[in-house]
């Protein structure tokens, strides 16, 4: 039986990281976390974690993460002062849960 001759190790092709993929998507148009999740094939929770990191690291690349706040579809209340990036559970004004998700985009500083 002949011995197999191995060649040099060639690492597998590396694709873009999750954060880089999300950043590329956000340069095109505003997207919700759910839209990003569907487009990139990443779990929504991981998208929100990545967006937190992008918010902190984008200024070093000359970019800024712009958050269009979530809105109540019933009364129109905007969650403008909210620091968390996820969708709120209910409206503090009318207590309804019909909330439009926040949208995210990247723009140059």
Automatic annotation (TrEMBL):
Domain PF0610-like rubredoxin-like zinc beta-ribbon C-terminal: 69-107
Taxonomy of the source species: Bacteria, Pseudomonadati, Thermodesulfobacteriota, Desulfovibrionia, Desulfovibrionales
InterPro entries: PF0610-like, PF0610-like_wHTH_N, PF0610-like_Zn_ribbon_C, WH_DNA-bd_sf
Species annotation: Desulfocurvibacter africanus subsp. africanus str. Walvis Bay
Pfam family of the protein (one): Zn_ribbon_PF0610
Residue ranges annotated for the PF0610-like winged HTH N-terminal domain, each copy included: 17-66
Domain of life: Bacteria
The name this protein goes by in its record: Transcriptional regulator
């Amino acid at each position: 039986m002949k011995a197999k001759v191995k060649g040099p190790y060639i690492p597998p092709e590396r694709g873009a990281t999750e954060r880089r993929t999300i950043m590329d998507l956000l340069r095109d148009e505003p997207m919700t976390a759910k839209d990003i999740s569907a487009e990139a094939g990443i779990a929504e929770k991981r998208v929100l974690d990545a967006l937190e990191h992008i918010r902190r690291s984008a200024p070093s690349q000359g970019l800024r993460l712009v958050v269009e706040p979530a809105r109540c579809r019933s009364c129109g209340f905007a969650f403008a002062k909210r620091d968390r990036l996820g969708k709120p559970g209910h409206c503090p004004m009318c207590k309804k849960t019909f909330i439009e998700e926040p949208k995210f985009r990247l723009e140059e500083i």
